[in-house]
Design goal:
The protein has 305 residues and is mostly helical.
């Protein structure tokens, strides 16, 4: 007679509870409540009231601040900025220098705005100025400088070694994000000044700075003129504020073929603009982004339902 098989009993194991995600935003300083873009965001996409405010202000296209200073190295400060966008307030001037040049400083706002447009174009340096001086003052200083740049520098490098032709477009894109956080009335006035400037500099219509200004001011139409209708980089879609369906279609199509080798930059604002389907697709596609963005991606997605 065959022996009956012994059935090994396996104890029922309750899955270990997931460790709660640390709220990295718990100690940030108060956020502005009068920013233009706050009135345009659907709070239903956010995981909390604070998350709705952060998404509405444009996180991660901004810096947040905490009290105190930062004692680490410049490289550690860069890592902090990249992973969280949260900077100790007393380290903001250092951040500006780290992301521009060692001999530049942020003590004088008009001069710092000129340096951004003429030498750097770096968004993180611009966000540091915004935290130091406020969104409206920073945007105004940049527009003041744009109006003073000679027309020849909009179309070529000029004779004085100006780099505006090369880096100005990047700075103008950053200005678009700062304008999200300017109150409605001064924002409208600044955009009206930029529209006049766009007309005055029309002779340089094929230049990188003019393409960026067209994109900032004219949404999808400006984007199509500047990018030829192709979203080579999804980040280029962020200033299209007049056609969310178009943004959603572009992002969803791009995510299907994207891989980490493309070095794409994760940005939850694509979902804020494109809607819940884009947020879900971004959440499902995190493996298609480079591994060194893991902490930043987790911070951004923690803000969404």
């Amino acid at each position: 007679m065959a022996k009956a098989k012994t059935v090994k009993k396996v104890a029922n194991k309750t899955p270990a509870a997931a460790k709660p995600t640390k709220n990295i935003f718990a100690s940030i300083e108060p956020l502005p409540t009068d920013a233009w873009r706050l009135s345009t965001i659907d709070p239903k996409i956010a995981s909390s009231e604070q998350a709705a405010q952060l998404l509405g202000l444009g996180y991660p296209r901004m810096f947040l601040t905490t009290p105190g200073d930062f004692a680490g190295t410049d490289e550690q400060l860069r890592t902090l900025a990249l992973n969280t966008r949260i900077i100790p307030r007393d380290a903001l001037k250092r951040v500006y220098t780290v992301y521009t040049y060692p001999d530049l400083n942020s003590d004088d706002l008009p001069r710092a705005a000129s340096e951004l447009l003429d030498f750097s174009g770096n968004h993180f340096a611009m966000y540091a100025l915004e935290c130091l001086y406020g969104a409206a003052a920073t945007a105004t200083a940049i527009v003041d400088r744009l109006e003073s740049i000679p027309v020849e520098h909009w179309s070529d490098e000029g004779s004085d070694g100006e780099r505006f032709y090369d880096v100005g477009g990047r700075a103008i894109e950053g200005l678009g994000f700062v304008l999200w956080r300017v109150p409605a009335k001064p924002r409208a006035a600044l955009r009206a000044r930029l529209e006049k400037l766009f007309v005055k500099r029309s002779s340089a219509s094929n230049s990188k700075p003019m393409a960026a200004l067209d994109h900032l001011l004219h949404g999808r139409a400006g984007w199509e003129r500047g990018y030829g209708g192709k979203a080579l980089d999804m980040s280029s879609l962020l200033l299209i504020d007049d056609d969310p369906k178009f943004v959603a279609d572009q992002v969803l199509a791009k995510l299907k073929t994207q891989s980490p080798r493309d070095r794409p930059l994760f940005d939850v604002q694509l979902g804020v603009i494109g809607g819940p389907k884009v947020i879900a697709a971004l959440r499902d596609s995190t493996s298609k982004f480079p591994g060194d963005q893991k902490k930043s991606i987790a911070a951004q997605l923690s803000l969404c339902r």
